[in-house]
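Note to self: the last two entries modelled the partners one at a time, which told us nothing about the interface. This time every component goes in together.
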Amino acid sequence: MKLTQDQIRARFRGRDVRMTPQRAAIYRALAERLDHPTAEDLYRQVRRAYPMISPNTVYYTLTVLKQAGLVHEVNYWHDRSRFDANLALHHHLICLGCRKIQDVTDIALDRLKIPSHGHGAFEVMGHRVEFHGYCAACRRRARRRSARSGH
Amino acid sequence: MKLTQDQIRARFRGRDVRMTPQRAAIYRALAERLDHPTAEDLYRQVRRAYPMISPNTVYYTLTVLKQAGLVHEVNYWHDRSRFDANLALHHHLICLGCRKIQDVTDIALDRLKIPSHGHGAFEVMGHRVEFHGYCAACRRRARRRSARSGH
DNA sequence: ATGGTAGATAGTAATCATTCCTAACAAGGA
DNA sequence: TCCTTGTTAGGAATGATTACTATCTACCAT
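The predicted structure of the combined assembly is written out below.
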């Protein structure tokens, strides 16, 4: 998907993100890739056009774009490994507030299949479903906060 | 779920994992928790009974248990953050061989709901499905390798 | 178009999870 | 009980990410 500078500018404007050549390059690099690159992947790619760019700028730009909703961070749990001794097939409820995780067991979720078209060559060994949202405690906390601030 | 020392010993035996007091403590700590603790969480818990234990032992034990299949690492992508400029709802095919990621779009997957029972207080904002397996290239590679080794 | 200001950039240094290396140690079979 | 091989714990190394900060720049108001 080729993006013009103006398209990028418009998207940034729409989310109140300041436009710089580095930011445009980072966003373009990300938007034109079909995989899900790391910050370092993007750094290496953008550096070809901007040899002076620092990894720092890439990291900072990504957090800005993320907050603005222009970019998604694909993996919530990237910071640390998490382990589980429950070997039974199950799925997860991840709280975006406190990051606590609950298990969900449900046969319907266990039976999912990838749509056949296009992925025939991929051999599926397993799958997992993540639900993201807010747990009861975090919802209570948010409600109390907004009440105090004089809704 | 209370585990006796003998139950743990039996599980370790069954997978040819050498039993040590530290390992039993780490495994017990993990098995008795409902959330999905990090290595550090386990370290802090086990240290109460084994003040001399090192984080190192926890990490090493977890890799051993993981290889033995006694424990799962819940998040594949923990090593680095990955980003995506595609904001449309979609899901992922993750290759366990080369870690490449393909997008999957499918309305049936988009419509999943958590089973109502038990999780009523959790407010779901979104969800994502990950399929794990082997891509065409990695399957070819594996087939070639096993052919060469004189299947 | 210009100037001022808030925000962005790019270095360097710090942090933090995890891995590497290794000498002392212990599990478990003979 | 003894031997061998795998395990432990410490310290150092690695590698991704963040913090700090002086300089610079986008962009709004004039």
